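Attaching the record inline, Q. Sequence:
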Amino acid sequence: MDKNELQEDGNNQVICIKDLKKSFGPKTILNGADLDIFKGETVAILGRSGTGKSVLIKIISGLLQPDSGMVKVLDKEVDKISKEELRELRLKIGFSFQNSALYDSMTVRENLEFPLVRNNKKISTQQINDAVEEVLNEVGLLQAIDQMPSELSGGQKKRIGIARTLIMKPEIMLYDEPTAGLDPVTSIEINNLINKVRREYNTSSIVITHDLTCAKTTADRVAMLLDGKFLKVGSFEEVFNTKDETVKTFYDYNFIN
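Structure, as predicted:
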């Protein structure tokens, strides 16, 4: 099924955002945002700092409440469901935080075991060990299983953060600035890992990023967020083949000669 057929089939819609609004005091962050994400695709959300990118994915995952509008994830309106339904929904959503969000006092193994044990009290020790080794193999860091986060590089922490998310077998992945603070070579490795995760786990993904190389490498579509709305949505080429100075400025900041 090609992308046009995918988008015509409502059954393949995993996230639906309609007229979403969110303010903090007098400051409007989202002001009528509309976006659909379809099964198996990756969408990169671009925008300057403070445009509401991180607020958006926090609303998608139920960490923030919208002021108005609709956010539907896997056919559930996130702000209308019970706490128990939200907890179950979050188990299907992987959230890769910008700072990796590892527990400094735990080894890599313990960091990965934690979500498994917290969400499945009946899981056996062997099942835990197998799951931990599987995801560490996926991110290429099995050798780091007994290390502490303080012993890892920034890129390794990002990989472990993704592994901890994958261990719950999510249907949706939310990546918040996955290449922020990384050198170019490590950034390429993280981009390749995002693509590998999508391919091998059949995830649908949102990538929040300032990094246009990341967006171009990982995303089927990119969505430019400006003044609380999505200014342009389409392929990388469709969005940046424009005379719009706002979009051109963002592009030039990343790729200027």
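Strands lie at 13-24, 27-38, 42-46, 68-73, 76-77, 93-96, 172-176, 204-208, 221-226, 229-234. Residues 39-67+86-255 form a domain with the Rossmann fold fold (CATH 3.40.50.300).

More tomorrow.
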